[in-house]
Amino acid sequence: MDERQMYSEINALVGAVAKALTVSEMEVITAIEQGRLGLEMLTDADGRNFIEATCDGKAVRVYHGAIFRPEDRPEEPAEGGGCGGGCSCGH
Questions:
Q1: What is the pLDDT of residues 35-81, one digit of tens each?
Q2: With contact defined as beta carbons under 8 Å apart, do 62 and 50 qualify?
Q3: DSSP string, the chain
């Protein structure tokens, strides 16, 4: 991966995290600089990779093409065993 491609990937990640946390991209950058934003690469129970972003007590999951916030999840699992969120993961 060349430097320009890496810049594009990081820019896309910052944008996705900003959207997930419902803040501006500048707020995400500031949180990174201040050490308030944590990013962790994880895999869910279905084997899908995601990035968990935590900032100021909020935690969100950023999947490729989908964002999950704890408040998006219904209390009961969706019928058919899907993820239960209103995402584009196909469940």
A1: 999 999 999 999 999 999 999 999 999 998 888 887 766 444 445 55
A2: yes
A3: --HHHHHHHHHHHHHHHHHHHTS-HHHHHHHHHTT-EEEEEEE-TTS-EEEEEEETTEEEEEETTEEE-GGGS-SSPPTTS---SSSSS--
| Cα–Cα distance for residue pair 28/86, rounded to 1 Å | 24
What's the start-to-end Cα distance of the chain, in Å?
32
pLDDT of residue 64: 87
Please count the other Cβ atoms lying within 10 Å of the Cβ belonging to residue 43.
Answer: 9
CA distance linking residue 56 with residue 58, whole number of Å:
6
Q: Which residue type sits at 54?
A: T
